[in-house]
Amino acid sequence: MYQEEIKTDTSVKEVLEHIVPNCVTGFIYGALVESFASEHSSRMMAMQAATDSAKDMLQQLSIEYNRVRQSAITQQITEIIGGAKAQKKK
């Protein structure tokens, strides 16, 4: 196996002085991106929960509306039948 020694003009200290700040900046940037993504994920989950809750509420209100409407229709039919019976008795 052939290996060649690479010679550089810079010292290890100079290389580290350049790499370490970039590495720290990268870690900080990664933490900020992760925080941003986490915040948006939390908002999305909250919005999904609110949407699901609104759908459930809409379904319950629709059922209640149909009950009230059916009750009103039944009452009207009963009144019509009662009026028709009263007319027949005359």
From TrEMBL:
One of its GO terms (cellular component) is proton-transporting ATP synthase complex. InterPro entries: ATP_synth_F1_ATPase_gsu, ATP_synth_F1_gsu. Keywords: ATP synthesis, CF(1), Hydrogen ion transport, Hydrolase, Ion transport, Membrane, Transport. Its EC number is 3.6.3.14. It is found in: Membrane. Coiled coil: none annotated. The keyword Nucleus does not apply. Signal peptide: none annotated. It holds the Pfam family ATP-synt. GO terms for molecular function: hydrolase activity; proton-transporting ATP synthase activity, rotational mechanism. It is a peripheral membrane protein. Belongs to the ATPase gamma chain family. This is ATPase, F1 complex, gamma subunit. It comes from human gut metagenome.
